[in-house]
Amino acid sequence: MERRPLLLVLTGFVLGEVWIFWRVKSAAALAAFFVFFVISILGYKGQRGSHFFKSSFLSRWGICIVLLSLGMCFGGICQLRFQNRQNRFTTLINGKTYKIEGQIEEKKKTNTATSLVLKNLSIGREKFAGRILVYVPEDREYGIGYWIRFRGTISEIEEPTNPGEFNAKTYWLAKGVFGCCYDAEVLSERYGGFLIGDALRKFRERICYFYERILGESTGGTAMAMVLGEKTGLLQEQKDLYKMAGISHILAVSGLHMTLMGAFAYRFFRKIGVSYGVSAVFAFPCIGAYALMTGMSSSCLRASLMLFVYLLGEYLGVTYDLLSSASLAALLLLCEIPGRLFDSGFLLSFGAMGAIGFFLPLLEEIFPEKEEDKKRKGFKIENIFRGILGGAGILIFTIPASLTFFHGISLAGLLLNLIVIPLMSALVPFLAVGGALCAFSCLIPVGRILILTGGMGIHFYDFLCRMAEQVPRSYLTIGHRGILFALFYYGILACGLILIRQKKIGLWMKRGILFLTCSCLFIWTGATKDIGEKVVFLDVGQGDGILFYSEKDEICLIDGGSTSKSMVGQYILKPALSYYGIDHVDNWIISHTDEDHISGLFELLEDGYPIGRILLPALNEKDEKMLRIEALARKNKTQVYYMKRGGKLKLKTCTFFCLHPEIVPGSDPNENSLVFLLSLPYQEILFTGDVEKEGEEELDKVLERLSLFKNKKVRIVKIAHHGSVNATKEEFLKQMQPDIAVISCGKNNRYGHPAPETLKRLNQTSAMIFRTDEEGAVELRTGKQIRINCFGK
To answer: Where would I find the H helices in 191-317?
Structure first.
């Protein structure tokens, strides 16, 4: 470790940043870091009692302590400065309108607007060190480097309110963006003088245009993401396909891309007769221009910085060390924006570097290549084995980050990457050169041929991914794991690596320890599964979506739709299921077929998501949406059942009793909502759909006749019709006397749900009231005692 001082400083930096992040108000922690650092330097004594200024101080532990302390101080200071900037922005989120001026750093177009990231901000008369996200009308044209002045209100970037939902706030904080403005009124603009950035942006847009024009929407969107890091044209179907196959990393500009670009530029200058050192220097601007054009993501910046270090080492004749280079890149990136530490791209990118630097050399030592194999030329089966070992090493090293952000791991990627990564060395140059040639009108025919050739490679990737989908358990949905899991995981891994490093242990013993360590890691990963009975009222906006997870791992969804949030199935339901380690739905109960209860079901059925059976209310006549559900269910091999009062859905440890509807001709669809009473070992939960006055009167009569409440009562109630004024009458509440009432409704919805009258009636009871528009998703872990967790708090 003492031979890699940058790695020690980085370790201390991360510890200091994390400490300040979790103890925001404890400024004394920074003082403690400083005191620890001073004591380490001035108070450390060597074997003979000598201090820092004598050579005996320069021992292994002394240097480690000093470098770690220095890193902790530095990391704490950077994190405090970052949080102070964030707090300054928080004071501006007060509903007031400000005049803001800033310089455009990044620009992206969507279907409805253009998003700009501005730096060098002036808000009112004050200067702000940070960035802001601004949405402006699409019909305006702005260049990178331009200055714009606008009027608008500053809003906070929303945090996720559902389990597994994309964390937009963390994503933008990793870019140094502290706030956003959705109602920008542009007052003026002026030229900023950054010709290179604007020229590269236009060049990139022209290449994207030809990708889509020549390859079509789907394949062209994949080519944009693969070569330029532009994901706005990438279809969600393609994202999911590549994710399940374990090759989604090729959809981001990474070290492979930067290596290809750097090697191409370096070899080009070498071939025209330029010296080694000068070729390396000339390759710098090529790498920088490509990084700037592709969006400067964390993985792209990491690869660029490491490549710069490598080329600089070539120029100076210095030996290149991967871990030291990666540590320097991480320090530079974290010093600029400490928020990158919690970004998935940053952690996975540097996690892969850690695996290559720490783990792969160890695997090469345990499984050495024989001398006769080294001399043998041509195809070697041993190379496939070593490639699988390398992929397994990266997979093992990055499992905690993968489960934290994506809740699953792909085993198919171990084999597919053996084909995909080598092919990328040809595919990316074909697409990149073809796009660049098409940008010049006279070379479009040649560029078109190259792009079509690259498109064939993308189709081959799609074929491999679809083949991998057919293999059972090729993708394991394991579920979310937190920081404690990561600590134990890396603790087990570290113990195994330390034992393997012992020189006295034989080769077969080392292999046995490696096998035992990996087995313990996989057992620990499976043993920490989030088990137990739970009901989760998801925040779907204006709508209903409820997940029930039984003690025997039976999965039920109740409704799942929204009229205020688009793609609720893709962005809320599926992430929530994967968060809990769920890859199928056993039973999906639809209370009625209004859009705010059913839109997510249509999405998942069309995607082919595994659903065992769908339960719908039995009516005299099936409406159009019921017929559509039946048609989609047949394609998806999903059973459809219709239920009415008296029916029941029996699971292994509990039962859903259908209390409503009794078929009444011509009744309102809301009044014909399915109402289920879930009978658990220790409590009852009532799911009321959208029933109102007439339905509640019927329910009162049914509840009076039931003998289910002799020993138990309805402890949890889903308030009907999102808290409408006509629902949840006083007599109905008196009948149930719930302990917990949950209202599912959208923030600032146009219906005024929940109604003040309904809230007043609920407040007169002893029930705890939870609202998804305020608390986010509400998770209730049932049992003898109910444990409550709100994701929006």
So the answer is: 195-215, 217-228, 236-245, 255-271, 276-293, 298-316
